[in-house]
């Protein structure tokens, strides 16, 4: 039985955290600043989180977004998650992708949400 990589994030890889979630850089980033917001409790499905976990996770997402705004000043963001194998979920632990985007990156919309992960599907 394999262990979940999100249940043992090394302390030095944690960018920020609160009671319910932590933030860490994506190991296969789509863009500079691509960050994962990962629940502290091992849950495979966002819809199984408690309301407190959802609020805490959203609060950390907002705080990390504000930090990225200060550091990178992106022109936009993709925010997304896959829920279930049929939706492309590979790691069955709730995590949200926060992906800063810059003008000029988008070519005919293929870097929008539907294409973000598809372009990195090999990971």
Describe the overall structure:
By secondary structure, the chain is α+β, with helices and mostly antiparallel strands. 21% of the residues lie in helices and 21% in strands. The chain has one domain: HIT family, subunit A (2-Layer Sandwich). It has two helices and five strands. A five-stranded antiparallel beta sheet has the order 1-2-3-5-4, covered by helices on one side. The mean pLDDT is 88.
In DSSP terms (H or I, runs of 4 or more residues), the helix count works out at 2
CATH topology: HIT family, subunit A
| Total of domains | 1
List segments where confidence is low: pLDDT < 50 over at least 5 consecutive residues.
Answer: none
How much of the polypeptide forms β-strand, as a percent range? 15-25%
Please estimate the helix content: 10-25%
Strand order of the largest sheet: 1-2-3-5-4
E-strand count: 5
Q: Structural class of the helices, strands and pairings?
A: alpha+beta
Distance from first to last alpha carbon: 20 Å
Q: What series of H and E elements makes up the topology?
A: EEEHEEH
Shape: globular
What characterizes the major β-sheet?
A: 5 strands, antiparallel
The level 1 CATH classification is Alpha Beta
What integer value in Å does the Rg equal? 14 Å
Average the pLDDT over all residues and give the rounded result.
88
């Amino acid at each position: 039985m394999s262990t979940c990589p999100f249940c043992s994030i090394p302390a030095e890889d944690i960018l920020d955290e609160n009671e319910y979630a932590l933030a860490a850089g994506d190991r296969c980033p789509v863009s500079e600043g691509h960050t994962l917001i990962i629940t502290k409790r091992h849950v495979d499905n966002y819809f199984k989180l408690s309301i407190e976990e959802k609020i805490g996770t959203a609060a950390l997402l907002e705080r990390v977004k504000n930090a990225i705004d200060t550091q990178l000043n992106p022109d936009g963001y993709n925010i997304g998650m896959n829920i279930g194998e049929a939706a492309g979920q590979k790691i069955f632990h709730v995590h949200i992708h926060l992906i800063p985007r810059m003008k000029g990156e988008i070519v005919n919309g293929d870097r929008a949400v539907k294409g973000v992960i598809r372009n990195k599907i090999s990971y």
